[in-house]
């Protein structure tokens, strides 16, 4: 079976490379697009216009709106947040949302948070953060986990509660704290310690202690790896890039584009979802600290990070370990208007997808995008704003090439033709996870809030969010601008 599976993977990689040779995306696409994109902000402001596209509102279906979205600054792990706990960050995002909306705490029906690496002391981090932020102990809260789309799941769970009539007002969010992750003793040591706790006599305790060996003391370190395949995500990204013929140059160009656009957006004050936060015992933080525009020459000096020595994924064209939290206020349109709010956007159709975690771990956007467009009755041409999660530059490029391949659509998706790649002049124009940072559980809310803000700024009507996640899963959602 292993040889058959390996042969299948080699065949797929070979066929993908052959099909990609005809791809219209040239090796220098990123430099050209970055150059165009850097000058788009002023142009877009001048070109804001009212779209005449039909609304996705449906008779008898409740309209659900995004009222507001905020996030703490996303910081490199091990920096200013390093002495905190994850629920501290989640609490800060909740308090920031309350401050920005003047929302009465007792108006919230339910709170849902996403996270990936759980702090064992706060297993239901949504509840601990809510209590810390001053919400009533009568407000139910629960925590969800779905790898990098955990806060996407938190939001859509909230959408479901509103659509079913259970709730009118939901706060959803996500948090990740990579500065301090649980590190376990070895299994043998854990068993010994549990047995020690149950031992009734001194002799039993001494016997157990005498059985401890040096090997027992080796810790189990966490890793961003697949349980089902034991492969790190970076290794998977490198293989995926190779299968789709994504070069090191393309990946470095895309990473440079992400950082350059993020810095421009940050300097222009476009990242208005970021709230200032006073870190206890330290300074006030008010902006992301991982945005670092470089040069192609500097990027080219970095060595392969996963597949050594000839891999193409490096530290610079990968998202970095990040601490941060996000929160959004989701309501039924009727309730939002009754409370005097002006919503930012409608949350429309969404899908979750899942595929082989070995060979297609990071292709969630390629699978999710055509499905959500079909559900919404839209085409790629209808979408004005694209915000895709950037786990790795190679992952993004592989998804774009998959979406632009008839062969891939026919072979793997049961479609007659490709959906097409997003135009780069509409794609991640304010940076992305490569530059802004990627706190696993918090990124989904950032993506949705960014789409809402970009639609308003650029005068578009429809936005599309897409993200991959560990386990070979993915998410896509259509967002519609609220009438100005």
UniProtKB/TrEMBL annotation:
Annotated Thiolase N-terminal domain ranges read 64-334
Record GO biological process: fatty acid beta-oxidation
Query: In which broad location class does this protein mainly occur, judging by the first location in its UniProt entry?
Result: endoplasmic reticulum
The record ties this protein, via Gene3D superfamilies, to:
3.40.47.10
- Which keywords does UniProt give here? Acetylation, Acyltransferase, Endoplasmic reticulum, Fatty acid metabolism, Lipid metabolism, Membrane, Mitochondrion, Mitochondrion inner membrane, Mitochondrion outer membrane, Transferase, Transit peptide
Q: What SUPFAM superfamilies does the annotation carry? A: Thiolase-like (SSF53901)
* Cell compartments where the protein resides: Endoplasmic reticulum; Mitochondrion inner membrane; Mitochondrion outer membrane
Q: Does the keyword Electron transport apply?
A: no
Q: Name one GO molecular function term.
A: acetyl-CoA C-myristoyltransferase activity
- Check the record and name the InterPro entries matching this protein: Thiolase, Thiolase-like, Thiolase_acyl_enz_int_AS, Thiolase_AS, Thiolase_C, Thiolase_CS, Thiolase_N
Q: What catalytic reaction does the record list? A: octanoyl-CoA + acetyl-CoA = 3-oxodecanoyl-CoA + CoA; hexanoyl-CoA + acetyl-CoA = 3-oxooctanoyl-CoA + CoA; decanoyl-CoA + acetyl-CoA = 3-oxododecanoyl-CoA + CoA; butanoyl-CoA + acetyl-CoA = 3-oxohexanoyl-CoA + CoA
- Under Enzyme Commission nomenclature, its number is 2.3.1.155, 2.3.1.16
A cellular component term from Gene Ontology for this protein is: mitochondrial outer membrane
UniProt keyword Nucleotidyltransferase, yes or no? no
Q: Name one Pfam family in it.
A: Thiolase_C
Q: Which PROSITE patterns match?
A: THIOLASE_1 (PS00098), THIOLASE_2 (PS00737), THIOLASE_3 (PS00099)
Q: What pathway is this protein said to act in by its record?
A: Lipid metabolism; fatty acid beta-oxidation
- Where in this chain does the record put each Thiolase C-terminal domain? 341-480
Q: Which family does it belong to?
A: Belongs to the thiolase-like superfamily. Thiolase family.
The record's PANTHER family line, in alphabetical order, gives: ACETYL-COA C-ACYLTRANSFERASE, TRIFUNCTIONAL ENZYME SUBUNIT BETA, MITOCHONDRIAL
Role according to the record: Mitochondrial trifunctional enzyme catalyzes the last three of the four reactions of the mitochondrial beta-oxidation pathway. The mitochondrial beta-oxidation pathway is the major energy-producing process in tissues and is performed through four consecutive reactions breaking down fatty acids into acetyl-CoA. Among the enzymes involved in this pathway, the trifunctional enzyme exhibits specificity for long-chain fatty acids.
Instruction: Please give the subunit comment from the record.
Output: Heterotetramer of 2 alpha/HADHA and 2 beta/HADHB subunits; forms the mitochondrial trifunctional enzyme. Also purified as higher order heterooligomers including a 4 alpha/HADHA and 4 beta/HADHB heterooligomer which physiological significance remains unclear. The mitochondrial trifunctional enzyme interacts with MTLN. Interacts with RSAD2/viperin.
The molecule here is called Trifunctional enzyme subunit beta, mitochondrial
Q: Which organism is it from?
A: Gadus morhua
